[in-house]
Design brief:
globular; 8-stranded parallel sheet
């Protein structure tokens, strides 16, 4: 037996845990993908960081030998599904993928099929995909969700096995939770830690190129994986990106409108920026007859309805497939740039009423998070002061042009990924990652391209700076065992990846029912019951509602 210390309603409770996994291995040793540098002299987390995740209670394994039997495999690389196959996992590694028969014939049960399983998952008629990799997440503050367990379980319940925090929360908090996740001490995806310049250290904001280089060196020495930059002053941006490249750190940028006139996507990627997140800096690099956005004369960036209502009105300032458009795409491809659009982050702007009423809010959105979404001049992204039809039309037009650009980049071999930036604008974690995948299909991506964007291409983006090969992002022999099992075909309907499943008429009963939803999520060889994780989230919401109801006037009943 061993003891675990749990936090229950603010009380510290120590319980005895009896191992119940015959054949289960101890937590897998850290691989290169999991290893972290222990941060030196970490200070206490910020007071507004969410509570650290409790010790892991969920999940079985890893096992000496786990076999997923008879599944149809979508390996994430873009290749077609194949099956039935048996997937053999030993510890936290995929060691074999063996044919298990021929479609249309009884399952092959010959002695040539893999044997010796400590645990088997019977997956005939089901689909296996790689664990999803979301490259743009935050855990925010206690104001939204007091406990990080809420985010972690929503992610895993949707088959998300790796997340890049940009940032998660404070540096100290992020590094500690990254280390705990790497050791499987908590129920959580893999954590990849990106931080903003100047965060975490004792020397304050970065104001000079010399400080920029010093901070990047500090970040590398303390185990950070990369940096999330804004539209920094050109000399500082150059220093940040150059030093990051030297030290093998990744980079992503939100090229905000206050700085984009001097640092658009073309200029930033020329300096070495690896990933463009959102859309900022893209349109500004392709204007036909402007060098800055022609804002109304009464624009005020700090008025968020003003800001977000106007930014979509760039849609007709560029010429799709014109000279500047094609030139920018070519430069991005030559520079091996990843586009991380997070279209879901702005989706509410094109239909506010619809997205306020998403079917998962009532059961899975915390009252505290719902209140953060509710129109407010204080909360970032809650800018629905008086959202108009004209605003929504502008956003619909903007999406049409934006999606065309993303699809063109994908078609020329560029890397586009599927991420969420959840926790704002009625986007609830987990669900919003699947929404982003649907938006990529709307943009013109084949469902196989969508799954590749959310798995292989996202993991490839993270691995660019590593000296070791990719270790997850596809279901292949030798890869880490990060994958998801769903009992419906996600290529036929991506909606089956939602925790709530997809609506389908049962012709036998004549009644509609929900089908799908991830059944099992496997992270690092540990098998999680995705439905149980989602039920845990529903209980968190119910428990919070008993003591702190959300805004009844707006919240769906």
């Amino acid at each position: 037996m061993k003891s675990r210390t749990l936090s229950v309603f603010g009380l510290i409770v120590t319980v005895l845990v009896v191992p119940g996994n015959a054949g289960a291995l101890p937590a897998a040793p850290q691989t290169a993908a999991q290893a972290t540098v222990t941060p030196q002299n970490l200070r206490a987390e910020r007071a507004d960081d969410p509570a650290a995740a409790p010790a892991r209670r969920e999940g079985d394994g890893p096992f000496t030998r786990l076999i997923i039997r008879g599944a149809t495999l979508i390996d994430g690389t873009g290749g077609p599904p194949r099956g039935p196959v048996d997937i053999v996992i030993e510890g936290n590694k995929i060691v074999d993928i063996a044919g298990a028969g021929t479609p249309g014939l009884p399952m092959n049960d010959s002695t040539r099929r893999p044997r010796g399983a400590v645990r088997e998952i019977q997956a005939a008629g089901m689909y296996v995909i790689p664990g999803l990799v979301d490259l743009h997440v935050h855990q925010g503050t206690k104001q939204k969700a007091p406990d990080s367990e809420y985010y972690n379980k929503l992610w895993l319940a949707h088959g998300i096995t790796a997340v890049r925090g940009v940032p998660f929360a404070s540096f100290d908090y992020s590094m500690k939770e990254k280390a705990r996740s790497a050791k499987n001490e908590i129920t959580a995806p893999r954590y990849i830690v990106y931080q903003r310049p100047g965060s975490g250290w004792e020397k304050g904001p970065v104001r000079t190129p010399e400080q920029a280089r010093e901070w990047v060196r500090w970040l590398a020495q303390n185990g950070g994986d990369g940096l999330k930059v804004g539209a920094e002053r050109p000399d500082i941006m150059a220093a940040l990106l150059d030093e990051a490249k030297k030290l093998g750190l990744g980079s992503t940028a939100h090229l905000q409108q206050t700085g984009v006139a001097q640092m658009n996507a073309d200029e930033a990627t020329r300096l070495g920026l690896q990933t463009i997140t959102h859309f900022y800096g893209l349109f500004e690099a392709m204007y036909d007859r402007n060098s800055v956005q022609p804002w109304p004369v009464d624009i005020n960036y700090n008025d968020e309805q003003n800001r977000f209502g106007q930014v979509a009105r760039q849609w007709n300032l560029v010429t799709p497939r014109g000279e500047k458009w094609n030139s920018l795409l070519k430069k991005f491809k030559e520079r091996d740039v990843t586009l991380d659009p997070t279209m879901v982050a702005y989706l509410t702007g094109r239909d506010l009423t619809h997205h306020m009423a998403a079917p998962w809010h009532q059961k899975y959105t915390l009252p505290t998070l719902w209140d953060y979404y509710t129109p407010s001049r204080a909360n970032h992204g809650s800018y629905w002061y008086y959202w108009t039809t004209a605003d929504e039309v502008a956003w619909r037009n903007f999406y049409r042009v934006w999606m065309e650009f993303l699809n063109d980049y994908k078609n020329m071999g560029g890397r586009v990924v599927a991420s969420s930036d959840a926790g704002f604008i009625y986007n609830t974690p987990g669900f919003s990652t699947i929404q982003e995948m649907e938006l990529l299909q709307e943009a013109g991506f084949h469902p196989l391209e969508v799954i590749r964007a959310g798995t292989y291409h996202a993991a490839e983006t993270l691995a660019k700076n590593k000296t070791t090969p990719m270790e997850y992002g596809s279901v292949q022999i030798g890869m880490l065992a990060d994958l998801a099992v769903v009992d419906q075909n996600p290529l036929e309907n991506l909606k089956v990846l939602y925790g709530t499943g997809a609506l389908k008429l049962n012709d036998k009963t004549g009644k509609p029912e929900q089908v799908g939803g991830v059944k099992w999520t496997i992270k690092d060889g540990i098998v999680y019951d995705a439905k149980k994780l989602l039920a845990d989230v529903a209980k968190m919401v119910d428990d919070q509602r008993k003591t702190r109801p959300a805004t009844d006037a707006i919240r769906p009943k």
